[in-house]
Amino acid sequence: MDQYLQAALEEARKGYEEGGIPIGSVLVHQGNIIGRGHNKRVQQGSVVLHGEMDALENAGRLPASVYRECVLYTTLSPCPMCSGTILLYGIPKVVIGENRTFKGEEDLLRSRGVAVEVVDDADCAALMQRFIAEKPEVWNEDIGV
Amino acid sequence: MDQYLQAALEEARKGYEEGGIPIGSVLVHQGNIIGRGHNKRVQQGSVVLHGEMDALENAGRLPASVYRECVLYTTLSPCPMCSGTILLYGIPKVVIGENRTFKGEEDLLRSRGVAVEVVDDADCAALMQRFIAEKPEVWNEDIGV
Fold it and tell me: GO:BP terms for this protein (chains A, B) (predicted)?
């Protein structure tokens, strides 16, 4: 597996070990990971810190010029919130671990010129499938269902 | 002015007094304000806590059924991130103070069935105009420019 998607998956596993929703993300700028994060709904009672949002938050305040040279790696297809955030900051490329367990706003991203790559990684999917089977109500809450 | 938009404007003013970006929001459920917030970029170094996001975060974890009965009031037209969040949680209505200083994803929201009302309030606009004139670089950072 790509080292960056691997790092995102490590974040997802960290979330799972904490009892949280196992979705992880890393923000990569010119080959360097500048932000890592994972979903914090359970751990912090957060409704905004999805994995992608947590990675961006941990990267801190950045000028627009940096975001425009970034790739966002995420273990799961980005929901409307995270997709909107990708559009807000003009992140040009997103690499998605899997979209079997949830299909986010990939079409909207592509329609706005974002490059979207779906790896379809079995480990990313297996971790989410396990969590959804164990705690379906927490997962549904996370996606507004 | 509508009491809820007034409450959102009070949040925006609080943000301005703290040296932050003056955008405020309240989440209203069946006539009751259940979350208040304002942009925290400057105060907390946050890249995700726009006014709308902060109001949702402060409302805490809610079941989907509650969001579906909510109205989100915001002093400024919601950016792609905040609009995506409105879609994620299925909030059916958004009341916007003004969209003179920034026009967000109102068309996307409407295309997905969200009721969008623009009040065009002069006080909301004046506060943003003042901030943008004073700190244009902070404002540009907030909208990824």
Answer: nucleobase-containing small molecule metabolic process; pyrimidine-containing compound metabolic process
Please tell me which of the candidates A88, A141, A145 has its beta carbon nearest to residue B61: A141
Please confirm, yes or no, whether B52 is among the known catalytic residues: yes
Specify whether the backbone of B45 is left (phi greater than 0), alpha (psi in -120 to 50) or beta: left
Rg of chain B (C-alpha set): 14
Q: What is the pLDDT of residues B21-54, one digit of tens each?
A: 999 999 999 999 999 999 999 999 999 999 999 9
**SS3 for A21?**
coil
Rounded distance, CA A65 to CA B145, Å? 8
Residues of A whose CB is below 8 A from B140: 64
3 state SS of B50: coil
With contacts defined as CB-CB under 8 Å, which chain B residues touch A89? 47, 144
Domains of chain A: 3-102+122-143 (3.40.140.10)
Q: Is the pLDDT confidence value at A143 over 90?
A: yes
- As given in the structure block, the two tokens for residue A129 are 């499938």
Which residues 45-84 in chain A show a CB within 8 A of chain B? 45-49, 53, 56-57, 59-64, 67, 79-84
Read off the amino acid at residue A40. Answer: K
A92/A1 Cα distance (integer angstroms): 22
